[in-house]
Amino acid sequence: MIKKVADKNDSGPGVEKLIRDIYILFSENADPLKAEKMEAYMRNQFAFLGIPSPHRKKLQSLFVKEHKAALANSDLEKLVYSLWEQPEREYQYFAMEMYYALRKVPVKSDLHLIEYMIRHNSWWDTVDYLAPWMLGRWMEYFPDEKEGVIKRWLDSKNIWLQRSCLIFQLRYKQRLDTNLLEYVIIQLNGTHEFFINKAIGWILREYGKTNPVWVSNFCKRHTLHSLSQREAMRIILKSK
User: Fold this and answer.
1) pTM above the 0.90 mark?
2) How many whole angstroms separate alpha carbon 149 and alpha carbon 65?
3) What DSSP assignment string belongs to 72-87?
């Protein structure tokens, strides 16, 4: 059963009705057998309803279309907080994807919500959407805030915030700030944390598609974890 909307959200009946409608839609499409497999794939970190991603996204699209007016008049941020508190993972996927799609122009206060989602119910599946899509877009709208956010998140010792500092530029291509990327990698280099070392390799590999010379030179100038080094150079070495 869906959890009651938390009192701290002070969400009002509009959000509560939307939550109930989402719950009904998702419950009608739940598949316990698929849920078991999805939970196993995610190392039983979270409960699932058993709605595969392609089908879930179709349901989300249908929901947004049918509830367009209600969503436009609701407190979208409070709706996201409420969905994020639900035990089944599909609600969190819906929350972040819906917010990204409906919040066409970010506002500065969005950072609080983005950070909340990264910090809570954290795992690679949500963080790897939130960082390059939501945080990446927010950073481009508010570049003057970038340095302070990066420093605070690196100092937080929270691996998901730190991973986000690495991969928020994942989709930037030519717009990627190499000085900032180098700074972040140097700050995090030397850790034995898998999700950090993997992210270092991932962002370097992705940027290597745009600027392989810079990535190759970076890997020569710095001693990286073997996982980071291998991931960073994988495509570049294949192309030679």
Assistant:
1) yes
2) 35
3) HTS-HHHHHHHHHTSS
Q: What is the spatial distance between Cα 70 and Cα 179, in angstroms, rounded to a whole number?
A: 44
Tokens describing residue 220: 């020569």
Residue 47 pairs with which residues in a beta bridge? Answer: 88
State the Cα torsion 28-32-37-41 to the nearest 10°.
Answer: 60
Q: In whole angstroms, what is the distance from residue 114 CA to residue 117 CA?
A: 5
b or e along 40-56 (b: 16 or more beta carbons within 10 Å of the residue's beta carbon)?
eeeeeebebbbbeeeeb
Pair 37, 49: CB distance under 8 Å: no
Residue 8 confidence (pLDDT) above 60: no
Buried b or exposed e, range 78-109, using 16+ CB within 10 angstroms: bbbbbbbbbebbbbbbbbbbbbeeebeebeee
Model confidence at 14, in pLDDT bands (50, 70, 90)?
Answer: confident
Report the pLDDT value the prediction gives residue 6, as an integer from 0 to 100.
Answer: 40
Task: Tell me the two tokens of residue 101.
Answer: 């799609």
| Number of helical (H) and strand (E) elements in the chain, helices listed first | 15, 0
Distance between CA atoms of residues 207 and 232, nearest Å: 9
Rounded distance between C-alpha atoms, residue 195 and residue 206, angstroms: 16
Write phi, then psi, for 121 (nearest 5 degrees): 50, 45
In contact, 133 and 167? CB cutoff 8 Å: no
What value does the mean pLDDT take over residues 166-179?
98
Alpha-carbon span 61 to 79, nearest angstrom: 16
Match 């530029």 to its residue by tokens.
Answer: 169
For residues 97 and 57, the answer to whether their CB atoms sit within 8 Å is: yes
